Every structure is written in structure tokens, then in C-alpha cells.
Amino acid sequence: MSILGTRVVRTEDPVFLTRGATYTDDLTDERLTGALHLTLVRSPLAHATINSIDVEEARNAPGVVAVFTGADCDIAPALLFPAANKAMLRPFLATDRVRYVGEAVAAVLTEEAYQGEDAADLVDVDYEPLDAVVDMKEALKDEVLLFPEAGTNSVTAMHLAKDEPGEDFFADCEVVVSREIVNQRVAAAPLETRAASAYWGEDGRCTIFCSTQNAQSARDEVAGWLGMDAKDLRLILPDVGGGFGAKIGADPEFALVAWLSKKVGRPVRWNESRSENMTGMVQGRGQLQTITIGGDRDGTVKAYRLDVVADAGAYPRLGVALPMFTRMMAPGTYDIPKVWSTAKVVATNTTSTAAYRGAGRPEATQAIERAMDLFADEIGMDPAELRKKNVIKPEQFPFTTKGGAEYDTGEYAKAIDLVCRAADYEGLRAEQARRRERGDALQLGIGVSSYVEITGGGAFVENATVQVHPDGNVTVLTGTSPHGQGHATAWAMLASEELGIPVEKITVTHGDTDLIPTGAGTMGSRSLQTGGVAVHNAAVELVELAKQRAADVLEASVDDLELDKANGAIVVKGAPGAKSVSLADLAGQEELKVFHEWDAKKPTFPFGAHVAVVEVDVESGKATVERIWALDDAGPILNPLIFDGQRHGGIAQGIAQAMLEEVVFDAEGQPLTATFADYGIPSAAELPSFDLVTMETPTTINSMGYKGVGEAGTIGSCPAVHNAVIDAVSHLGIRHIDMPLTPVRVWTAIHEAQKESAK
Q1: What are the φ and ψ backbone dihedral angles of 399, each rounded to 5 degrees?
Q2: Is omega for the bond preceding 740 within 30 degrees of 0, making it cis?
Q3: Most buried residue, 86, 121, 123, 531, by CB count within 10 Å?
Q4: What is the dihedral of CA 514, 516, 520, 526, to 10 degrees?
Q5: In the predicted model, is pLDDT for residue 673 greater than 60?
Q6: To which H or E segment does residue 208 belong?
Q7: What pairing do the DSSP bridges indicate for beta strands 233-236 and 206-210?
Q8: Dihedral, CA atoms, 274, 278, 279, 285, nearest 10 degrees?
Q9: Sheet harboring 64-69: ordered strands across?
């Protein structure tokens, strides 16, 4: 029986549940013996000029070995994203200006970690406050400039004026609905905060241990910042405690740690506090969206326009590119004849933005799914029926959308039907009608979402090495970089399936750039369809290599040989009991090892549909998510245990954005959500049980049919819950409430609607 598709318990978990993970800050590597501890002095102001920095008192504090400022730093300021405005460079330590609360202005190195905070407090920085700009619309006015030399706060604009649609774009529509909505900024808040350690060897090479989602690209970024050849830098990943997109690539602090280590001639360690993480680590989302949808009263959607303003934060990073995915995925699952989108990205005196679970695709789904509900409400049509009427049909695939994406496979109407049937959608609507008729204080809301996402986009190439050893054990080297996804188990399953060697004898290694020089890491739900397929293909090729070598030993034609998976041996076909040779024996004679690089060339497009049920207390505004049914179709399921775990995590984060999470800055750019006491991360008590509906539609892009699932739950659940809460109070005249749907926001919307109806 095949191991694929079975619930294999994760091989990683016993260590995590007993000894615990070994994160970067936990390392006891002898190469880090005598390491100094880095504490960064951070700006308390969002926007200010620096008149002077006095570090003398700090240098004389107990345990202090050295203090550095930007004036000492010879690492050139860097453009952290190539497509950004070329004037928007980030210094590794601020020199003449700070642009967000938490920006580093000095580096303190101490013998013990605890000494750093006391010494950092002694660094005297003379700031001259400047006006801050936090609101994206205000930033677009260019009245307060973060980079005067740039002459603008606009980082980039993603539209061409010559393609602007004319006034007749919605002319043939009987109904047109438009609304501005907010896709709020959120924090990744991984279990492990950012961390790095570095030392320089006698050979002139630098080794960095750090917490990142992709070792190879992080190595290349750091090497570029330091002006050194990437071959002279080794980057090693210990266990990584979550990333959610915020740990893609390198942080500038990694390069600073390496530079400081070289400067003082000793290893240096850095690990940030939780508050530093909440103010300094890149954050996600942060879009202001204007949605306009038009069509006929029979439910035919004819035109859709999406205008986005995205917040890059103070120093443009990956967040600059994410509106590209929002625009590409703007039409969602729908066959809309006319679609137009624009995006402007603007710098503000806030923390930089980058990827967060879904990275541009949840924003697109949120916009189109709110638009569909607004349109359904306007024409008096059931939102599920409206969606089914307008989705792309199975026979239309592969389908190129007006956003420019080529969807591979999908059965969108079937997904909506299945999840609605699982939820007893008609029964829920009947209960909702009864509550409304009675005027209950607890009103029922039902939200539907249909989504499609792009996975593996832009990172199509991945490699794997599979080697059988003389003792019968197997090593798999992979360019992917797990941080909770279960690759050690999944890749072992793929190798085991082809080699006939048990999972427990297979070790998966990742995240060491000397062992694995190339690789694209883990992000964008890419791993299985790239790294996993590479492992599968490498294992298949290894069996072929083994057969070629066994041909001489068994004195048989290669074509007459096969792998006996039950015994991990090459045998003659149809000759039971005949002579055989094991893979281990072949490995003892000559290295049995295969390297394979897989290029998918195209992304895949998983899809699904969610139904959420909420209760809203119309007297207090408190909304509670009672049930959620999720159908997430990512093709064939390799390991249902891991697959469902990924869905659970994604659904939780989608619900969290809809109901609780929001990074908030005041008008002066001061962060108001810098601790977990202020930032609303849900616990199990705030989440319902998840009802998972299964459907498997293979892709045509790879031979295994795999698509990605890591971000799917987030993309589907957030709009379903958002729509459900608004649906619960829509009979009161409420058409929209921005996320997060806190009791205050819901209560305010109810009372404003009551005042309006009383006029």
C-alpha cells in the first residue's frame, strides 16, 4: 500500500514536544564561545532629525565592550527592494534622520545580554522632532516627506495612465456599487522573534546563524549589503519558530551583526524582545481599497474596478511588490468581462511592510468578496447564488483572467455547493429569518467566500539531493526551508514511496548554504509543488541509477530489473527468490546519490469556498464566530494530518484578522499595539471548531498534481467571517463595517444606522 495520502505522524514533533526546539538564541555552538551580545538603541520618535549622539557614558558602563553609531558604520545604506524609489535607502544605523519608532541609531556590545539594556539607556541622542505622516492619503499629498531627496512619498505606481478606462466602463451596467474599504495592517508575531549570530573564521569566511525562511537568498542579500562574495558567507538555519512571510530573506540586522563581529574580532549574538519585534519586524497587509462593481439585476456581473493604495512603511521592502499580486488576482474566481485595477505604494512613518500569510492574494480576495456581497445586497440576490452564477466554469480551464493570471484547473461552483451543503446553508438562512422576525438580541450572520490563489508564483525552481548510505539510511537535501510545515515528514514520505525505505530511516536536511548552495526556501505555498516534486523526481532517478549499477551485479538487462520496495532491493522482474542486491549494498560499492532540479515554470492556483456562521449581540456589538466550514482544494493530499494542520492555522489567522488583529499607530506615529497586551491575537477560546470539507482537483503543472495549501485557509476564512458579521446586522441598514470587527465598531455601526433610519 502506498504511504502517500496516509496520516503519517510528523517525525519532527517528538523533539519539539520533549527537548524543545533549538532556536538561534539557544545555540551553544562552540564557534560562538565568548560571543558579545548586541543591544540596539532605538528611536522613540517616528520622524526626527538627529542633531547628535553621545555614547561616552554608555561606553563606560559595566560589561560594555564597544558602542557604534551610524558615523562608525561603513556599510552603505541599502535599497531594500529593487523596484522602490531609488532615493529611499535604509541606513544600517540611522545617521541624520529617523523615520519610524524603533529605528536603530546605535549598537551596544556587552559581555552579558542583560547589561545591554542598561547601557543602551545611557546613549544620549539629541532629536529634533519632525511632523510625521501615518495616514496613506496624507502621505500621497507629499506635504510631509520622509525622503526630501526623493521629492515624493510615492514608492511606485502600478498602472499606466494611457490604459485608464473611460467614463463608459460601467455604462452598460444596470447597477453599480462602490465603496472604500480597509484591509488593515497586521503583525506576523511569530513564536520566535528575529535573531542572528555571527563569527569570522581564520579563513576569512563569515558564518551566520539566523532565523529566516530561505537561507540561500538571505545569504545573497547579506553578502550584497556587506560588499562581499556570497561564497565567503555561510548561512545556517537552526530551528525557525514561525515566519508567516515576515522572515522571507534577510533583515538588515543580520548584516549589522556580521559587520560588528568582524569589527570587534569576536562572535556577536542578537535576539530582539517581543516589543522590538512588534515595532521592528515587517508587518503585513496595509491596503486602502476602493471597490466598484457593476452588472445587471439578474445577477450578471459585467465590470469590476479595484483601486489600491498600499502602505510601504518607512523603508520600502517586499510590501512594494504585493499589490502586484492583488491586481493579478483581482477578479477572483469570477468570469468578469471587464476588470481594471490600479495600485499606488506610499511611504509612511511606520514599520516597513512585507509578506504576511497570503501576501497580496488575501487582499484581492477580501476586495472582490466584499464587492460580491455588496452587489448581492443591492439587487436582493442570495450571495451564494450570485457567486455560482458568475464563477468560471470547469470547461473554461486553463483560463486567463483579466488580471493576467492563467488559472490551471478549478471547479468553483462545485466547491460552493459542497461547502454550503455541509453547512446546511438553507437551514441557516431559515434560522436567520426566524431570529430577525422575533427581533432577537442575538442575530445570526452567514458569510460565504469563494477564492482562488496563486501558489509557487515567481519561485518555480527547486532542487533536491537524495542519497542512500551503506547502512541503509537515506539523506535528503532540500532547498526548501521549513518552519512548521512538516517537510521532514513529507519529504521522507515521498522518498520512502519510491525507494521502499521506511520513513524513520530517512533524514531531511535543509538550511545550510555550504551543503545546499542553491534553493528558494519556503514561502508562497510553494514547497510541495516545487521542493516536494524535486524530492520525488530525485528518488525516481536514484532507482534508475541503482538499476543500471545492479545490472552488472545481477548479470541482467536494466529493462528486466525492478525495485522490490518491500525489501529495498533491485530484483529481476517476475523471478521471485532470484538473486537481488539491496540499495544499501550498491551504496557500499559506489556513492549512490542523485541531484535533481525541478522547474515548474508556472504557478498553480488552489481554490476553495468557506461558509462562516456568527452570532452578533445587537445590544453590545459583540460578534462571536460559532462555526466555519472550509473547503480548500490543493490537489491530491500527501499527508492529511499535515494538510489539515496547515488549514487550521490558516483559518485561525483569517478569523483573527477579521475579528481582532490590527496594528495601530497614533497621529504622531507612536505604535499603540507594541505588546501582546494591546494586540489581539486569538487563543483557542476565541476560535470555533473547524469543519473541513475535502475536494481534490489536480493541477496540470506537475506530474504529482500538487498545489499549495499553506495560505489557503487565511484567504478563504477572512472574507467569509467578515461577510457573516455584516450579514448579521444588514437588516438594520448596515452595508459595511471595516475590519477588525470589534464590539465597538459593530456597536457604532448599529447605532449610526439607527440614527439614520430615525431621520
Answers
A1: -125, 125
A2: yes
A3: 531
A4: -150
A5: yes
A6: strand 206-210
A7: parallel
A8: 160
A9: 64-69, 104-110, 36-42, 268-271, 195-200, 206-210, 233-236
pLDDT digits (tens, 9 = 90+) for 481-519: 999 999 999 999 999 999 999 999 999 999 999 999 999
Residue-averaged pLDDT of the chain:
96
**What is the distance between the alpha carbons of residues 310 and 355, in angstroms, rounded to a whole number?**
13
Task: Tell me the CA distances in angstroms from 295 to 163, 311, 389, 428, one per residue in order.
Answer: 22, 31, 12, 28
Residue 161 has pLDDT above 50, yes or no: no
The closest of 295, 300, 196 to 238, measured between CA atoms, is 196
CA distance 504 to 748: 57
- Give, as one character, the DSSP assignment of residue 349: S
Sign of CA dihedral 257, 261, 262, 267: negative
Q: Are 609 and 716 in contact (CB under 8 A)?
A: yes
E strand or H helix at 476, and its extent?
strand 474-478
Residue type, 56: E
pLDDT digits (tens, 9 = 90+) for 269-328: 999 999 999 999 999 999 999 999 999 999 999 999 999 999 999 999 999 999 999 999
Supply the DSSP string of 487-506, one letter for each residue: HHHHHHHHHHHHH---GGGE
Report the chain's terminal Cα–Cα distance, integer Å.
Answer: 71
Contacts of 655 (CB under 8 A, 6+ apart): 625, 628, 682, 687, 717, 718, 721
Handedness of CA 59, 60, 64, 65 (dihedral sign): positive
Block residue for cell numbers 497570503: 358
Q: Could you report the per-residue pLDDT of 717-752, keeping only the tens digit for each? A: 999 999 999 999 999 999 999 999 999 999 999 999
- Nearest CA-CA partner of 457 in 541, 371, 379, 520: 520
Element (H, E) at 156: strand 154-157
On the question of pLDDT at 91 being above 70, the answer is yes
Sheet of strand 442-452: strand arrangement: 442-452, 607-617, 623-633, 690-693
| 170 touches 294 (CB < 8 A) | yes
Q: Are 46 and 130 in contact (CB under 8 A)?
A: no
Q: Give the pairing type, strands 124-129 and 48-54.
A: antiparallel
Q: What is the pLDDT of residues 35-75, one digit of tens each?
A: 999 999 999 999 999 999 999 999 999 999 999 999 999 99
Let me know if 265 is exposed, middle or buried by CB neighbors in 10 A (0-12, 13-18, 19+). Answer: exposed
